[in-house]
Amino acid sequence: MKKPRAFTLIELLVVIAIIAILMAIMMPALQRVKEQAREITCRANLRQYGVAQALYLDDNEDRYPSAWTSLVKTESPVSGYQRFCRWHDPRYPADGPFWPYLKKGKVHLCPSFAVVAKSEGTRHPSHVASNPVVPYYSYSMNAYLGSRTGANGGGVLKASEITRSKAEVFFFAAENMWLRPGCSWVLNDNALCPDGRDWFGTFHGTNSGDLNSGTINAVFADAHVQEVRSALGKDPGYRDDMEFGRFEKYGWPYKKPPQ
Known about the structure:
By secondary structure, this protein is an alpha+beta fold. The protein has helices at 9-59, 111-120; strands at residues 139-142, 170-174, 191-192, 216-220, 225-228.
């Protein structure tokens, strides 16, 4: 009976090298699959926002909540609190009027945003090191909804006051937590002011690790969810994608452009 032949060191090294090459090929694909799964979850979250929108409007005579206080009643739960930290400090639970319509906490947090927060969470302006970085919401409401003064005038209080197609007016969308060229404000309250102050996030489907190159998801006033790309490109001077020359996409609630 022949003895089993042992592998030589060179053969073992060749096998290890082949495994390493296969892992190098597979890892990016696995990462893409993970990100696709996170994006699917994000869209599912926002679909629930769309359902909750209808329930809230039905309970409140067709009136939207104020964008600034939709999820949390105040940006500063205690005196002197740094409002840029509100989204990642669960010591102060959400208490806004729209939050109870989506009681499952995970619904309020995009899983891709949660992953990015592990490395980028402290990059936001005025971060306080003693505040925990445990994100519990990541979506912001269109500031032109819930108030007739809107983000900078021209908002609507009621859904019935929207004259543009509701499929073209976003309800909630995600913001970034870090600044980028041409962007002076990041996630710091519940309102996404699409008048050149706030911009859609860019962290889904990024290229080569560039967090400013991707897209995010948004839910619209008709409750559908779609992928959106920020109108603010890498070059802040290039603004051809801005609506009416100054707005982030899908923010304005009227058929007629602003005067």
